[in-house]
Amino acid sequence: MIVTTTNDLPGYRIVRHIGMTRGITVRSRNAISDWVGGMQSIFGGKVGVYVKLAEMARQEAYDELVEHAKAQGANAIIAMRYDANEIMDGITEVLAYGTAVVVEPV
């Protein structure tokens, strides 16, 4: 699966637009990560435990996006984006979305 944030794919021709495709995950923090994150924040700088949690959520949403596009018959996704919203304190939704297309080399 080719995935790009651009609206076109150099070297490829879009032969079919399938439409919107998306992947979503909902993740929560836990007491241990909050404690470790709190301790890390005392010293300033990167809060690794939250970086890891955010990266895991993005990867899950991305994987779901790719699977959804494959199920629609796509071999590429253009205009891919991420969005995140806090549903409630400590619970975050991460959405990966884009346009599913079928491409062929030029």
TrEMBL record:
Family: Belongs to the UPF0145 family.
Protein source organism: Brevundimonas goettingensis
SUPFAM superfamilies: YbjQ-like (SSF117782)
Protein name stated in the entry: UPF0145 protein IFJ75_07310
Entry-linked InterPro entries: UPF0145_dom_sf, UPF0145_YbjQ-like
